[in-house]
Amino acid sequence: MPNIKSAKKRMRSNAKKADVNTLVYSSMRTAIKKVEKEVKAGNKEAASNNLNIAIQKIDKASSSGLVHKNKAARLKSRLTKMKNNME
């Protein structure tokens, strides 16, 4: 446990940031899974709606530095290709 005031504050702020980062990352992964589920089920309309949401979540995670920009591009590309290749 830190004794210095600034170190105590840094611990508090790091804990808050960790909570936010976990929330953003997990919501991104959930959105990706929803798209994959709808593609598997064959629901084009639901898949495209969920794809838009997933792309927003991926962009948010990328802009905040949680996900590298190349990984974000790869995820968006894979999801879009998955949706476009639906029968």
Helix/strand/pairing class, anyone?
A: mainly alpha
| CATH architecture assignment name | Up-down Bundle
Query: Any idea what the CATH superfamily is called?
Result: Ribosomal protein S20
Which regions are unreliable across 5 or more consecutive residues at pLDDT < 50?
Answer: none
**Shape type:** elongated
CATH domain topology: Methane Monooxygenase Hydroxylase, Chain G, domain 1
Strand tally = 0
> What is the top-level CATH class?
Mainly Alpha
Rg for CA atoms = 17 Å
In short:
It is built from three helices and no strands. With 87 residues, the protein is mainly alpha-helical.
Please provide a written account of the structure.
The structure is a single chain. This protein has 87 residues and is mainly alpha-helical. It has a single domain, classed as Up-down Bundle (Methane Monooxygenase Hydroxylase, Chain G, domain 1). The protein is 84% helix and 0% strand. The protein contains 3 helices and no strands. Helix 1 runs antiparallel to helix 2 and helix 2 runs antiparallel to helix 3. The protein is elongated and about 60 Å long. The model has no long low-confidence stretch (mean pLDDT 95).
Describe the protein's topology.
Layout: H1 5-41, H2 44-63, H3 69-84
Summary tags:
about 90 residues; mainly alpha; Methane Monooxygenase Hydroxylase, Chain G, domain 1; 3 helices; about 85% helix; elongated
